[in-house]
Design goal:
The chain has helices at 11-24, 36-79, 84-109, 134-149, 171-186; strands spanning 2-6, 30-35, 120-125, 154-159. By secondary structure, the protein is α+β, with helices and mostly antiparallel strands. A 4-stranded antiparallel sheet has the order 2-3-1-4.
């Protein structure tokens, strides 16, 4: 995987970076060209959905608890008017619960990746799928780093074993690489 940081929109560099790869090896498939924001958004989407659903169910529980406590307290107050302290204490508990819920939703909106993600482009390559042995793959990556680093607007370029979405490339990435390689080899010209 190659990561390139630029001073411009990274999507504008995608085509030029892909052309640099193809200039070195026209058989080398380039797949999963994405920006870092897209990768991080996709990687936290399931957790974000879980948190939103948990928050929704918590809000429904608070509403039901409020209605239930109000009903019990109304009945209790009709029976005994001297227990106003219980009503105040139960309302305080509900207010604290609502505050915690609001803070949780606020924290959910502000997930920080602990790195700058703006203007970063990720290119996934699989030289091994194209028959490269490790020394030749390292040489290919070194040439790509030099060529992509020379593109206008690129501030820095580096390699990575995997993106932030996983500890290693998953089956979907490998399948995409195999499909891209098969398509490139089967297409005429």
């Amino acid at each position: 995987m190659i990561r390139a940081r630029s001073g411009v929109d990274p999507r504008s560099l995608a085509r030029a970076a892909q052309n640099e790869v193809l200039a070195l090896d026209s058989e080398q498939p380039v797949f999963a060209i994405r920006t870092m924001e897209e990768v991080l958004s996709r990687s936290v989407a399931q957790r974000r959905l879980s948190m939103v659903l948990m928050g929704l169910f918590a809000a429904i529980a608070v509403v039901l608890a409020t209605v239930g406590i109000y009903g019990v307290m109304s009945y209790s107050m009709a029976q005994r008017t001297h227990e106003i302290g219980i009503r105040v204490a139960l309302c305080a508990v509900l207010l604290v619960g609502a505050g915690l819920f609001e803070r949780t939703l606020g924290n959910l909106r502000s997930i920080e990746p602990q790195m700058k993600t703006d203007n970063m482009l990720l290119l996934s390559l699989a030289p091994a799928l194209n028959g490269y042995q490790p020394p030749a793959a390292r040489q290919l990556y070194a040439q790509l780093l030099e060529r992509i680093g020379g593109l206008p607007g690129v501030a820095s370029v580096t390699t990575a074993l995997a993106g932030p979405e996983s500890a290693r490339p998953d089956a979907a990435h490998r399948q995409a690489g195999l499909r891209a390689l098969a398509d490139r080899r089967s297409s005429p010209g």
